[in-house]
Amino acid sequence: MTTSTPTDPPRPTGASVADSTLIAQESPAAPTAITGPGGPIAGPPPTPPPTPAAVPPAQPRRRGWRSLLPTMTPWLALGLTLVGLITLFGLIGPFLVGDPDTIRDIGLAGPTGENILGTTQTGQDVFSQLAFATRGSLQIGLIVGVLATVLSAFFGIYGAYLGGFADEAFSLLSNVFLVIPGLPLVIVISGFVPPESRGLWTIALVLALTSWAASARVLRAQTLSVRQRDYVSASQLSGERPWRVIVVEILPNLLPVLASQFVYAVIAAILGEAGLSFLGLGASNSSTLGTMLFYAQNGFALPLGAWWWFVPPGLIIALFGMGLSLINFSIDEIIDPRLKNARNARRLARTRKES
Amino acid sequence: MARQPVLSVRDLTVIYETEQPVTAVRQASLELGRGEILGLAGESGCGKTTLAYAINRLHQPPARIAGGSVIFHDREGEDIDLLALKDEGLRQFRWSQLSMVFQGAMNSLNPVRTIGYQLDDTLKVHDGSLSRAQRKERAAEVLTRVGVDPVRLRSYPHELSGGMRQRVMIAMAMLLQPQIMIMDEPTTALDVVVQREILREILRLRDELDFAVIFITHDLPLLLEIADRIAVMYQGEIVELGTAQQVHQQAQHPYTRKLLGSFPSLTGSRSDFVRHGSAQERSA
Amino acid sequence: MSSVKVTDLTKDYLIRDGLRRRRMRAVNKVSFELTPGRTVALVGESGSGKSTIAKLLTRLERPTSGTIDVLTDDGARVAGSAYRREVQMVFQDPFASLNPFHSVAHHIARPLRLHKRTQDAASTRSEVLAMLERVNLTPAEEMAERRPHELSGGQRQRVAIARALAPGAQVLIADEPVSMLDVSIRLGVLNLLGRLQRESRLAVLYITHDLATARHFSDDILVLHHGRVVERGPADAVILDPHHDYTKLLALSAPDPNRLGGVVRSTAPDRDAIDDSVCYDHHLGDWVPSGTQEVAA
Ligand SMILES: Nc1ncnc2c1ncn2[C@@H]1O[C@H](COP(=O)(O)OP(=O)(O)OP(=O)(O)O)[C@@H](O)[C@H]1O
Ligand SMILES: Nc1ncnc2c1ncn2[C@@H]1O[C@H](COP(=O)(O)OP(=O)(O)OP(=O)(O)O)[C@@H](O)[C@H]1O
Ligand SMILES: [Mg+2]
Ligand SMILES: [Mg+2]
């Protein structure tokens, strides 16, 4: 007699029991285009570039790290493509274009063969500016994403793991940071720091400090539930050091959450920085999509109808945010496998009906 | 004694749509009478939990109900087809009419909330008419029923013993006084004395409120004592359904007889037991 | 070979009561000994402090007072990381005791490496396979690569037992190791524990609420009630000839296939009248006081 055990059965908590099936029904529908089993994507989600090719021969079971990767869907592919292309542009673009600061006498000219996105008021090439600005924004996004994730992981996971006083102190701290209104604080701090010392890192630090708290709380709740599992006790009592228990036993189970928080932090940072720069409080001596918009605004691009000056940076911000969000939806599916099962079941049912 | 039915399940079939589809429940039919305790026994993996989830429509994809019907008979004589209910109707129905104690429920309490908060929340969601004080009183009352000191309302799940957490989950199912309670292995972490107190409490509530219970377990002797009727499941099918007396004395299916024979008696000879067990060591 | 000597073990927890916190004595002056090759069963009511004793023995919690000494054959006390090697535990919930993220091999290999039982990857691997064979998980090669969700409850408990034995543990605490398993699997896992115990002369503390298996798989039984030991003695004596009211109640409540519709419906013996302050010791053949008298749980 074989007794097979299913994947850890869903164990709804009492209060949410009634709603659990509703959640399953709300995952984004998979368009019919994809039929065969999607291959695992290469590389962890937030990292560019997208290489959805190289699908290994269908594997019966996805093991270890691989099971953490989301299934490829058209939405995920679109997200990865957007993020990948924009990242590529930010990485390579600056080497291919001319000096963005070269001042020419063809101010505010529309797109031409020479300047494909036209020029600014002072005759600088918008396309070269765009390349450098994209790089600047990505840099900020990455730095803040990493910093905020590290901060939230430290305060959320480590605090919850230690428990007792440390946990209470850490959660108090994150609650304090949570109720501090982010953007106003950032504005105040940035306004306070004199422009000459207001570099890229300062801005990144300020943005990171105001954005880690929410994720820390999510991570804390997750850690508390994982930490109570017997396997954590088992590894403690076999004599593992605390950091190893955290890194080897707890962290892998939190990776999808961490990844999703990271992606979210990147979006928030790029938007936040754009906002700051637009208000003229951004990093001096660096160029980002936000500063571009700032100069466009100062140069009266809108009233003058110079769309080529402000539309491209705005579009890049929007597309990048959209790409990351799409990736995030796919990560959510790993956090809540029910979403994934729901989609697979629908797909199976459909293919069965068709054949 | 013919009871009025409260739930009729007809030819229910549930399939797990995995790479190789598994028919976990095959053509299951049973009728639950008002005020009846129906035991559902069977070995691990035979589909007990799947059946319970399907009755409650709590099954998650890849599970799919492939056929059959589940009808709930209201006290007012109205019939509700559970499989046809829409989301909102289903949400209303669940927990207030039919509640469930999940298998392994002791580990499904939210670790960051107190017991009291979680009981209160369930009450708040399903019965908006109660005041805060009433809710608190009600929560304390159900907790007392399952033998947990109401002081523990302020405790977090990890501060309770395994059996206490399991009792909290039972209390949560009793909270809204549903007409049907499905209990999936609710007493695995409880000692026999407490287990009996809880069963007695269930029986008492049953007599008082006339609700019905589907009691899932692999502990057949326990069922023989408390259940009015017993259904035995084997590989997704209900192979035996009869009163406790019938099942005990004239079991039809060989599997039922095997199940009945595999229980050590407390006072029996020791060597019997151990020899019997060593044959099974490898097969487990 | 190691034995464990537990003396007057006491553990208080603080629980919130209104705005104050009050002390709750979860374990009250419990003393016992675990010796190589013997199994002691700890039975008792839910919430009576059984798991707390397990946590104290495995040093997941600190005792409020009392001592736990693990002694080697020559009487030396085991301390520090050696203690972690010596005393291991099997948990109740097979679904929570293995990390869903790691393979079976990882679970067993870690303690091996941690306690330097094996030096390199190859010897670790062969030792892992040997451990799996010992707990009857065959084919070991294939089992090693599986992840927990691909195993049944009984198979998971076998992995948990192998993990506990991997560091070379001499003392095994099994906290309700089979209560969440199917009856047909229970005996298999218990017999496995029994065989391993005989082979390696382990000292085993078997925590359970199932009197039948306590009787059949252990040499001595301790009955716990409200954190105090209320009856102790050889397994058969305690079960077949209970003296303390609580033990009697426990024995009476055990489900018996031959007693249809019985005890549940009959009136319950009065539990409030049970006197925790005394303990019947079958070895002495007499009553002894139990626990401290001033704090009632
Ligand atoms: N999510 C799932 N995907 C695929 N198969 C599943 C899933 N859940 C359960 N099954 C299969 O369905 C069958 C019935 O499982 P179910 O959980 O209902 O058994 P059970 O009788 O409740 O067993 P237990 O006593 O162990 O709880 C099993 O063979 C199981 O492997
Ligand atoms: N961390 C904690 N904080 C406060 N109280 C606790 C804590 N851990 C356990 N307790 C209390 O100690 C008592 C004994 O708990 P323990 O887990 O040892 O019981 P048990 O005998 O194992 O019961 P069960 O059979 O239900 O598992 C219980 O009243 C429990 O609520
Ligand atoms: Mg089940
Ligand atoms: Mg316990």
TrEMBL record, chain A:
This is ABC transporter permease. One of its GO terms (molecular function) is dipeptide transmembrane transporter activity. It is a multi-pass membrane protein. It is found in: Cell membrane. The chain crosses the membrane at residues 75-97, 138-160, 172-193, 199-219, 262-286, 306-331. SUPFAM superfamilies: MetI-like (SSF161098). GO terms for cellular component: plasma membrane. Residues 42-59 have a biased composition (Pro residues). It comes from the Bacteria. Its main location: membrane. Keywords: Cell membrane, Membrane, Transmembrane, Transmembrane helix, Transport. The keyword Transmembrane helix applies. It holds the Pfam family BPD_transp_1. Residues 1-61 are annotated as: Disordered. InterPro entries: BP-dependent_transpt_permease, MetI-like, MetI-like_sf. PANTHER family: D,D-DIPEPTIDE TRANSPORT SYSTEM PERMEASE PROTEIN DDPC-RELATED, OLIGOPEPTIDE TRANSPORT SYSTEM PERMEASE PROTEIN APPC. Residues 138-328 form the ABC transmembrane type-1 domain. It comes from Kineosporia babensis. Belongs to the binding-protein-dependent transport system permease family.
TrEMBL record, chain B:
It is found in: Cell membrane. GO terms for molecular function: ATP binding; ATP hydrolysis activity. SMART domains: AAA. Keywords: ATP-binding, Cell membrane, Membrane, Nucleotide-binding, Transport. It comes from the Bacteria. One of its GO terms (biological process) is peptide transport. GO terms for cellular component: plasma membrane. InterPro entries: AAA+_ATPase, ABC_Ni/Peptide_Import, ABC_transporter-like_ATP-bd, ABC_transporter-like_CS, Oligopep_ABC_C, P-loop_NTPase. Residues 9-260 form the ABC transporter domain. CDD domains: ABC_NikE_OppD_transporters (cd03257). It is a peripheral membrane protein. Belongs to the ABC transporter superfamily. PANTHER family: DIPEPTIDE TRANSPORT ATP-BINDING PROTEIN DPPD (PTHR43297:SF2), OLIGOPEPTIDE TRANSPORT ATP-BINDING PROTEIN APPD (PTHR43297). This is ABC transporter ATP-binding protein. It comes from Kineosporia babensis.
TrEMBL record, chain C:
It holds the Pfam family ABC_tran. PROSITE patterns: ABC_TRANSPORTER_1, ABC_TRANSPORTER_2. One of its GO terms (molecular function) is ATP binding. One of its GO terms (biological process) is transmembrane transport. The keyword Transport applies. It comes from the Bacteria. Residues 4-251 form the ABC transporter domain. Keywords: ATP-binding, Nucleotide-binding, Transport. The keyword ATP-binding applies. This is ATP-binding cassette domain-containing protein. It comes from Kineosporia babensis.
